[in-house]
Amino acid sequence: VLENQDLQDSIKPQKVEFHSLNFNTTLHWQPGWAREARDALYFVQYKVYGQSTWQNKDECWGISGHVCDLTHETSDIQEPYYSRVRAALAGVYSNWSLSSRFTPWRETVIGPPMVTVVHSNKSIMVKLQAPRSPYKRKRGSKIPMTSYYDLLYQVFIINNLLDEQHRVLVYEGKDKVIEIQDLRPGVSYCIVAKMYMPMLDHSSAYSKRQCILL
Predict the structure, then answer these.
(1) Which is the CATH superfamily of the domain at 114-213?
(2) Which residues fall in a coiled-coil region (predicted)?
(3) Which of 28, 31, 52, 123 has the most crowded Cβ, counting Cβ within 10 A?
(4) H or E, element range at 29
(5) DSSP one-letter code for 56
């Protein structure tokens, strides 16, 4: 019995955490500390905070990996959720390891916008597209993150003659197409943008830089 108890403890999953980007939500965990824990299989359950019964996640029932996609299960984005994972090895089951409480609307990370740049001789046109959630409208298109939050685009310009890190904010607002004027021909400029949420004072990461020589 003692050996079983030791095995139970040593294969118990560690660090059960939700990770979420634009409401694409996955549960991650690490294997127990026993060397043989790498051969364990994992079982995932989830529930909304306050519910008494746990639901099995069928696609993550007896899996060998350490990630489980719960995007679909956490689609009511204002609700707080929990998840838990247990391991099994050689007929022995560990106790459950519980995640922290996770509320998608509060905790998902908002990604950067997509940026396209087009130039004329002294100006740059910047086209912006908000990141999209995995959830779909009736017609099938993915709902943009701007439908869930009051988000602003922030657009920065980097003059490549100057210091790389010297980003100048040239626009903040909701327009999807902006024009940056009075630039110098023969100079290479780069544009980066991010999404900004005034209410929670959160910013996304920067978009990939788009560079252009006027």
Answers:
(1) Immunoglobulins (2.60.40.10)
(2) none
(3) 31
(4) strand 24-30
(5) E
Q: How far apart are CA 59 and CA 72, in angstroms?
A: 12
- C-alpha span between 164 and 9 (Å, rounded): 51
- DSSP secondary structure, 144-177, as one string: EGGGTS--EEEEEEEETTS-TT-EEEEEEES-SE
Cα–Cα distance, 202 to 106 (Å, whole number): 11
Q: pLDDT of 93-137, one tens digit each?
A: 999 999 999 999 999 999 999 999 998 778 999 999 999 999 999
Which homologous superfamily does the CATH classification assign to the domain defined by 1-106?
A: Immunoglobulins (2.60.40.10)
Residue entry with tokens 């979420």: 20
Distance of CA 117 to the CA centre of its chain: 25
Question: DSSP label at 73?
Answer: G
Q: By three-state DSSP, how is residue 21 classified? A: strand
pLDDT, tens digit, 9 for 90 and up, residues 185-212 = 888 899 999 999 998 888 999 999 999 9
CB atoms within 10 A of CB 37: 19
Q: State phi, psi for 66 to the nearest 5 degrees.
A: -120, 25
